[in-house]
Amino acid sequence: MIKLEEKFVRFIEAEMQSDPAHDLNHILRVTKTAKSLCLAENALPEIVIPAAWLHDCYCVAKNHPDRDASSKMAADKAIRFLAAINYPSKYFDAIHHAIVAHSFSANITPKTIEAKIVQDADRLDALGAIGIARCIQVSSSLNRELYSASDAFCSSRVPDDQTYTVDHFYKKLLLIGDSMNTESATAEAQKRTDFMRSFLKQLGHEI
């Protein structure tokens, strides 16, 4: 698998369309987490590892009109690549499904433990310290304000994450932990969500 993973890295470096939240470091983190979850949940690494490596081999920006179809495009591209390197075809359908289902935007329910793991690993990367950093990176690239001066923490208004960065915590990030599929990911999500709440509390103190 090590030699295969070297091929995955070269493919990602050559083909991945990066944005501030989806780069090689994101892939490395998701793959590391997916491997850990795979071991804990007794899943098939032959499916989990390639799906984790290739889940964002085609990726468009958060505000792109084709965002919902991005994971399907990535899955199709991944299978073409795996076929070209003679990866066992018996895993193709499961890998394809795991990649398609990983996306929050696609809103597809994962049907296998392997798909659940890849989805969990990707969503965990939106939480904790790295989740805070990624959120700010993306919002900055889209020229969104950090917070609302009149109601920074959405106390009396509906979150508007198209305008304010902090609103994204209340519209999505603080809710992600409830969507985890596996026990291992649920426990880790709770820790990371608690850290994000601490960040918001400190931010409130400072402003």
Strand content: under 5%
Largest sheet: none
Shape designation: elongated
- In CATH terms, what is the architecture of the largest domain? Orthogonal Bundle
As residue ranges, the low-confidence spans are none
Which range best describes the helical content: under 10%, 10-25%, 25-40%, 40-55%, 55-70% or over 70%?
55-70%
CATH fold assignment of the largest domain: Hypothetical protein af1432
Spatial separation of the terminal alpha carbons: 49 Å
Number of strands: 0
**Any idea how many domains?**
2
Output the radius of gyration. Answer: 17 Å
* Count of runs of 4 or more consecutive helical residues: 9
Key structural traits:
Hypothetical protein af1432; 9 helices
Molecular structure report:
The model has no long low-confidence stretch (mean pLDDT 91). The protein starts with a helix and ends with a helix. The protein has helices at 2-15, 24-40, 45-54, 70-84, 92-102, 113-124, 128-141, 167-171, 183-206. Helices cover 59% and strands 0% of the residues. The protein is built from nine helices and no strands. By secondary structure, it is mainly α. The protein is elongated, with a radius of gyration of 17 Å. The protein has two domains: 1-122, Hypothetical protein af1432, CATH 1.10.3210.50; 126-207, Up-down Bundle (Methane Monooxygenase Hydroxylase, Chain G, domain 1), CATH 1.20.58.
